[in-house]
């Protein structure tokens, strides 16, 4: 690692860790100085990609332009064997999206966005009675008669957590809620966004229908709009209880929904791969991954432009310092958001090759606070070395085994060792998959801390012996 980089790293680490030190540290460089230091490929990759390409939905012309951009950039940075590996995948594109509560109160517009794989309501839209469920589990437990012919609403406000652990639990409403609602005969599903902010920016993301289940229109409301729907639902419920007791016909809560996305069939996507060739041709490579595609609402800065910036900057720093023993393979995967098609395609093509270890950065750009390992027993001393190196940057050693990331998921499932540089996810789900995922949300100081942690880790892994990592 270069001395200048280490100085900046220590300054960043002290700043972001807020650790108690006896002597006050020298003033850290300002964010602008870091961003403009000329030694920050992580920032320039993220800035250039989000500025020159912007949103890059998998399988679209924008993603293909991003791949051409990526090949040119990686070649210009001095990487070897830069190439595109194409594959085909099914493509869904967004259409119009509108929702209004239309009764029993006066009509009110809601901020909604369609979920990936949502069916269309048709150009005229649909209108229906809402049936409320506090959670995905409550929907699954409900009798069919309660759901049939209705628009299902799934509540369940996601909790904020540093490790982002709420995503799996609360995310089910998005991942498989529409599938469960369709099986019970719902005409559409609307969920509370899987997000922790209180802005009127709904969070998109994919929803999945099992084979044989009819896709239905599926959208997500922003948190404040979901709150509004819930308040109207509660009032309608109270009115209904009163009216039924008095013998009136109660009025249900009604929603008008217009979503016109479409499936446009199989299209090209692809992975972009670059390498730092190792000095030992017999040593198995280290693979580091991010994903190049993004959702279409924002410019994909935190998800996952920054991840590509971080891993590539680290590989560049290791390459500049001296040739590593092992080859470092950089994978900018395509089509992650819509079903991890790039990760699967990489595994189909390269899964039988030996990989020493696989790592991924796909959780924003805030600082790394913990390192988790899932390495073979032979790598115990290597783990200790990495943990000791990272402790200087305010990073603690986790007790749970590393999980890897989506694009390296198939490799890890097949037994390739992995290591997670866990990023602080406290504010990640304020921005995730919203129009707010833009460059200004990235803190250059924290981005730099990521690069330093990655550089230190990658330098050790890429120079490890076969006895440590077979
Ligand atoms: Zn991602
Ligand atoms: Zn994502």
Would you kindly provide a written description of the structure presented here, covering whatever features stand out?
With about 475 residues, the chain is α/β, with parallel strands linked by helices. The chain has two domains: about 40-90 and about 265-460, 3-Layer(aba) Sandwich (Aminopeptidase); about 95-260, Glucose Oxidase, domain 1, CATH 3.50.30. It has helices spanning about 5-15, 30-35, 40-50, 60-75, 135-140, 145, 165-175, 175-185, 225-245, 300-320, 340-350, 380-390, 410-415, 430, 445-460, and strands at about 80-95, 95-105, 110, 110-115, 125-135, 150-155, 190, 220, 255-260, 260-275, 285-290, 330-335, 355-360, 370-375, 395, 420-425. Strands 3-2-9-5-6-7-8-4 form an eight-stranded mixed beta sheet. Strands 1-10-12-11-13 form a five-stranded mixed beta sheet, with helices on both faces. Helix 10 (about 300-320) links the parallel strand 11 and strand 12 (about 330-335). Helix 1 (about 5-15) packs across helix 15 and helix 10 crosses helix 15. The radius of gyration is 24 Å and the shape is elongated. The structure holds zinc ion (2 copies). One zinc ion binds near residues 303, 304, 336 and 362.
């Amino acid at each position: 690692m270069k001395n200048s980089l280490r100085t900046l790293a220590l300054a960043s680490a002290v700043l972001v860790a807020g650790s108690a030190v006896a002597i006050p540290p020298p003033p850290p460089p300002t964010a602008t100085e870091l961003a403009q230091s000329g030694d920050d490929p992580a920032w320039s990759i993220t800035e250039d990609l989000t500025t020159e390409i912007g949103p890059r939905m998998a399988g679209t012309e924008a993603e293909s332009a991003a791949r051409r951009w990526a090949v040119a950039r990686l070649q210009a940075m001095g990487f070897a064997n830069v190439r595109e590996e194409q594959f085909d995948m099914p493509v869904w594109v967004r259409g119009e999206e509108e929702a209004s509560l239309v009764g029993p109160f006066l009509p009110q517009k809601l901020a909604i966005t369609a979920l990936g794989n949502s069916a269309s309501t048709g150009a005229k839209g649909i209108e229906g009675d809402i049936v409320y469920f506090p959670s995905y589990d409550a929907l699954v437990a409900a009798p069919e008669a309660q759901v049939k012919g209705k628009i299902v609403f799934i509540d369940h406000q996601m909790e904020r957590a540093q490790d982002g652990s709420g995503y799996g639990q609360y995310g089910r409403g998005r991942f498989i809620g529409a599938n469960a609602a369709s099986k019970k005969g719902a005409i559409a599903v609307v969920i509370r966004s899987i997000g922790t902010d209180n802005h009127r920016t709904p969070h998109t993301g994919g929803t999945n229908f099992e084979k044989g289940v009819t896709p239905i229109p599926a959208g997500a409301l922003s948190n404040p709009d979901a709150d509004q729907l819930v308040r109207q639902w509660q009032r309608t419920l109270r009115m209904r209880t009163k009216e039924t007791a008095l013998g009136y016909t109660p009025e249900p809560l009604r929603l008008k929904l217009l979503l016109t996305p479409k499936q446009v069939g199989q299209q090209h996507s692809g992975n972009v791969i670059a390498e730092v060739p190792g000095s030992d041709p017999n040593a198995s490579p280290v693979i580091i991954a991010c994903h190049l595609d993004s959702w279409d609402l924002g410019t994909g800065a935190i998800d996952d432009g920054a991840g590509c910036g971080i891993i590539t900057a680290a590989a560049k720093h290791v390459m500049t310092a001296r040739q590593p023993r092992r080859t470092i393979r950089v994978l900018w995967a395509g089509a992650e958001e819509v079903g991890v098609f790039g990760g699967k395609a990489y595994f189909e093509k390269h899964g039988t090759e030996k990989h020493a270890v696989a790592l991924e950065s796909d959780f924003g750009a805030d600082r790394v606070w913990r390192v988790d390992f899932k390495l073979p027993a032979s790598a115990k001393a290597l783990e200790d070395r990495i943990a000791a190196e990272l402790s200087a940057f305010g990073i603690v050693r986790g007790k749970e085994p590393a999980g890897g990331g989506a694009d390296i998921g198939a490799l890890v499932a097949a037994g390739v060792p992995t290591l997670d540089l866990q990023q602080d996810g406290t504010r990640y789900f304020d921005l995730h998959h919203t129009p707010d995922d833009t460059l200004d949300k990235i803190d250059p100081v924290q981005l730099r801390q990521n690069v330093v942690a990655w550089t230190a880790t990658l330098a050790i892994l890429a120079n490890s012996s076969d006895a440590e990592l077979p």
